[in-house]
Amino acid sequence: MILADYSFDELRDLIVTLGEKPYRAGQIFGNLANGKAISDMSDISKALKEKLLEKFSDNALEIIQELTSKDGTKKFLYKLNDGNVIEGVLMCYTYGNTLCVSTQVGCRMGCAFCASTLQGLIRNLTPGEILSQILVVNRRLGGDINNRKITNVVLMGSGEPLDNYQNVIKFLSLMSDKRGINISPRNLSLSTCGLVPEMLKLAGEGYPVNLTLSLHNPFDTKRQQIMPIAKAYTVQQTVDALDYYFKQTGRRYYIEYSLILGENDTNECALELKKLFAGKPCHINLIRLNSVKERNLIGTSDKGAKAFMEKLEKLGLSVTLRRKMGNDIEGACGQLRRKFIQEGGDSN
Ligand code: SAH
């Protein structure tokens, strides 16, 4: 375990076993939430820091690269203690800053268009590693727990959050702890390719996150061609799980739909989306696919995307066409990490 994996109560127990007063746990928890490494904790005695450093690494991860796009989007590469590298994207909007966070190193879901999955799953991230991405970027932007620079979080970096279920649930509890960074689950979007049993389980956890399904095609056979998970669960089963989530939590849900030229931007698809979602507490986010040369999948044109959006609107669906952000800095999932590795970036 790393220190950032500890809940407040676990930290208090640990501190007591180290022969220290329990209140020290609060100080350490606050320091961690402020994105500080153990060696940076100025209000902790040297002796206690040494005791902690005997047991734990100094921090969970480090920012090793920061790129800023023309549109202000920032991309971060983080190095973990074992040398693995993950990435994150910071999107700045008028209402606040949204950080896109990774939950695994790599991914085993195998979606045809996604760069995160090319090398398979390397390992799960621990709760503290997921949380620390937020904490170090918040600190980098000059924020702390009293003045947060990150208002929203999306679990849309590399990895499938529901394939790392227990660690993601603990991360949610750490992130929403009032004594820590204190981000409400309502300000977090959890995006899944559609692990139905975990979607159902999530509905009862007491963390009312915005649940987002990466659908990308409303037809089973077509969806199976680009998303292997579609062989395990039908579109209907997946949509039923979303409806159940709404029933249990009262939270509307979201559909991610990356437009692929000639594949999922057809009239037929629009009509099927209407069948699935008209009148439902559901919002559809369209984005143009970041083309993947290796797979010969091409994003729908700007014009085509706009036309598809208008079609959905006319059919009575709630829909947004998201602008592509950070395209010039390899903005999509796993792309920067892949580039870093392909260019011979030494992650160790
Ligand atoms: N595993 C989760 C979360 C990570 S992916 C999931 O599947 O939802 C975040 C979103 O980016 C998903 O909707 C994913 O399908 C999409 N995505 C991945 N590669 C993309 C690409 N090349 N272009 C557009 N969207 C992409």
Protein described:
This protein has 348 residues and is α/β, with parallel strands linked by helices. It has two domains: 1-58, Orthogonal Bundle (DNA polymerase, domain 1); 60-329, Alpha-Beta Barrel (TIM Barrel), CATH 3.20.20.70. Helices cover 34% and strands 19% of the residues. It has eleven helices and twelve strands. The strands form two sheets. Strands 1-2-3-4-7-8-9-10-11-12 form a ten-stranded mixed beta sheet. A two-stranded antiparallel sheet has the order 5-6. A hairpin with a 5-residue loop joins strand 1 (61-68) and strand 2. Helix 4 crosses helix 5. The longest helix has 15 residues, at 235-249. It starts with 7 loop residues before the first helix and ends in a 6-residue tail after the last helix. The mean pLDDT is 93. The site of S-adenosyl-L-homocysteine has 18 residues, from strand 8 and strand 10.
